[in-house]
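User: quick one - fold this with dihydroflavine-adenine dinucleotide bound?
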Amino acid sequence: MSLLKEPILKLSQSREMRSFVTNNTLGRSAARRFVAGETIVDAIKASQEANKLGLHVSLDNLGENTSSEAEANRATQEYLNLLDEIEQAKVDANVSVKLTALGQDIDRAQCLENIRQVLKRAEGYNHTFVRLDMEGANYTQSTLDIFRQLWEEGHRNTGVVLQSYLYRTADDVADMIKLGVRVRLCKGAYLEPPSVAFAEKAEVDKNYVACMESLMREGNYPGLATHDEKIISHAVEYAAQHKIGPERFEFQMLYGVRRDLQTKLVAQGYNVRAYVPYGSQWYPYLMRRMAERPANLFFIASQFFKG
Ligand code: FDA
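Assistant: Sure. Structure tokens for the protein plus dihydroflavine-adenine dinucleotide:
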């Protein structure tokens, strides 16, 4: 782990730092690189631009760990409006949702009802896909339980995210393959203790590759979410060796990260989806992007002082 990763991830939870960064010009200029804007109009515009480049999109309304019922309801309403606008503008976009934005910390029943409403609205629009993002390891079981309940109720326009840094993920991958669930596989972006997660990057990467191979062979249209060129090359070779056509999986990458690689893969005939976040609650998201690559901090500071 980079020396700066842990302190940056700790700061992502600090209220004082949040208030300082969000009220600061440098912070706001940093956010612009990774966040499409503050409104649904900005999100649709960024989706249209991505679509023009041949990219599919997943839109995320930023916000997590809401602490009141009213906030959770507002976040739910925002997703309903977002789905309406996706339909209206006919953009090629699905949505990604964090359950803690919809009340997972407050009341499970309310959270479940909120996500159900989102799924139902999406179902009405040609079964637009709704991805449940995965948050810190304290939420893994509860997120998978809520997902399972939705699945048992018959909702099929939804899927999960699994993180290769968790020891449990290989088992979760196997379970999701059995159910036929669409999985997004990522490495994992939160600060986790060694009791639940691999500490060494090499182990996280090795587990990613093993889980990815299972999902590519036996899974339902997995989303391979990574910017790691070695892993992406491995996926391409693995697909060729096992005669897995490019229609059976997609690559996924973040808005503001490696657009060159995104469009290169599109040109090679792969499905690529850009994860496009928008909204005013960008602070923890931005800090996770900084923790993944602390050099971003220096890059942003230099751009700021240049401009
Ligand atoms: P790795 O960190 O090894 O980076 C490989 C290379 O990618 C770096 O060398 C650098 O070039 C580039 N890179 C990576 N991150 C960068 C950044 N922030 N800025 C600039 N360059 C960067 N996590 C989670 O816990 N729950 C979730 O639901 C999701 N959802 C999700 C969706 C999508 C579409 C993506 C791409 C990622 C996520 N993540 C996530 C985040 C994920 O867990 C992980 O933290 C990041 O993708 C970084 O890991 P990489 O796989 O890119 O590899």
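One thing worth noting: The longest strand covers residues 272-278.
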